Amino acid sequence: MKETFLGVDVSSSTYEQLNKQIFDDIRQNRQSMIVAINPEKILKAQDDPDLMELLNKADYQIPDGVGVLFASRLNKGGIQNRITGIDMFLTLCEQAALYGKSVFLYGAKPGVAEQAKERLLERYPNLKVAGVLDGYIKDEAYIKQTINEANPDILFVALGSPAQEYWMIDNMKDLNVNIFQGVGGSFDVISGRIKRAPAPVQKVGLEWLYRLVLEPWRFKRQSKLPGFLYKVWQDKKSR
C-alpha cells in the first residue's frame, strides 16, 4: 500500500503491517530496503531524477516527516501516523530480539556504533548484534567482507542521506543480508550523543520543532515545508 507525492512513493502501512512484511522477507530469504521519506527528500528528488529513481526502488518508504502526513490528508490519503527512521530501527531491533534475528550497525563516527550497540543491548538484552563498523572506513571490500562474515539478518546503515541509500542499492546484491535500512543519525541518538525530543513532543508530531530550537541552523530546511505542501496541492489540482 503506497501513496505518491510529486512522483515519490510513500508506504501507507502501519508499524504492525510493516513488521509482518519485513519479517516475512527474512523468513522467505528475500532482500528488501527501507528508506525514510520526508518533504526535504521529495523536494530534492524533483531536481534529481537519479534520487527519485533510487527512492522508488526501495521496498518500504516510511513516512518520516509530519509534512508527509499533511500531504496525505491534503490528498485524502490513508497515512495516519509518522513512522520515523529511528522508531523503525528500534522496532526492528525489538522484533529481532524476540525472534532470534541478528543485526549489524554500520556507519557514524568511530566509536558511535559501538556505543549504540551497548545501549541497544541494555534495552534488548536478547538482541544479537552480529557486528559494528564505523562509517569512516574506506575499504569497500573490507566492509563487505566483514558484514558477510557476520551474516546478519538486518543491516542498519548510518551514512547520512542520500549517501546511505546509494550505498545500499549499490552493494546489497553483494551482501548476505535480508533487510537494509538507512538510519541517518540514529546511532548518535541511541548512543546518547544527541538528545531526542521528550516522548510527549514526539507523540504530537513536534519533534521537528524541538530539534529546531536546539539546532537553529535547521530553519532553512524546515522552511521548505510550506512550499512542499503548495506543490502537492498544485499537483492535486492539475490531476
Description:
- With 239 residues, this protein is an alpha/beta fold.
- It has one domain.
- Helices cover 51% and strands 16% of the residues.
- The protein is built from 13 helices and eight strands.
- The strands form two sheets. Strands 4-3-8-7-5-6 form a six-stranded parallel β-sheet, sandwiched between helices. A two-stranded antiparallel sheet has the order 1-2.
- Helix 6 (112-123) links the parallel strand 5 and strand 6 (128-133).
- Helix 2 crosses helix 3 (49-57) and helix 4 runs parallel beside helix 13 (225-238).
- The longest helix has 15 residues, at 85-99.
- The chain starts with a strand and ends with a helix.
- The mean pLDDT is 89.
